[in-house]
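[Automated response] Your request has been received and processed.

Submitted sequence:
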Amino acid sequence: MGTRGYREQAGRTSYELRDLGLLSAPNEAAFHDLVAVARDLLVADMALITIIDDARERQFVKAHVGLALEPDAPLEWPLAHSICRDVRDRKAELRIPDLRRDAKHRDKPIIGDQGGTSYAGTAILGPDEEAVGVLCCLSRTPRIWSRGEMDTLKRLGRMASTLVMLRACEATLKLVALERAESRR
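Generated structure:
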């Protein structure tokens, strides 16, 4: 689904993200472990899991390793600064060997603020099989991401999708339990 489809569904998408707890509590262990493994396996300088919230026009960083951030720095950015949004909209992987030479992304703050030069990302799917976020890696030097590296990133992205699906199951079970408790009254 393209950008237009997400804008048409923005309220619903944001509601699901909020219900799943994806827009709060950064650096939860399971998500943090995935970005650490991604960085290590792809020998990257940085790795992030980002969640795209169209309703609020922001990208929330759910987990990260390698970013040079102050302890109180915000873990969200306007979507205008997002490379991950392109991955989510395409629901496909994206490789950019040198962001500085990419016409669409060369002015993104991640380049100047964090030194991100090379980007590889894959979509994270939500309960409705629509992409809700991205697992990405960045390097501080230009590089060509190999097919094997992208396959590894896609497998880790599927693991992140599974974590999101587990969140959906947990939310559903809580709702069912609440409905049962109310029906017994």
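Summary generated for your ticket: The longest helix spans residues 147-183. The chain has one domain: 3-183.
If you did not submit this request, please reply to this message.
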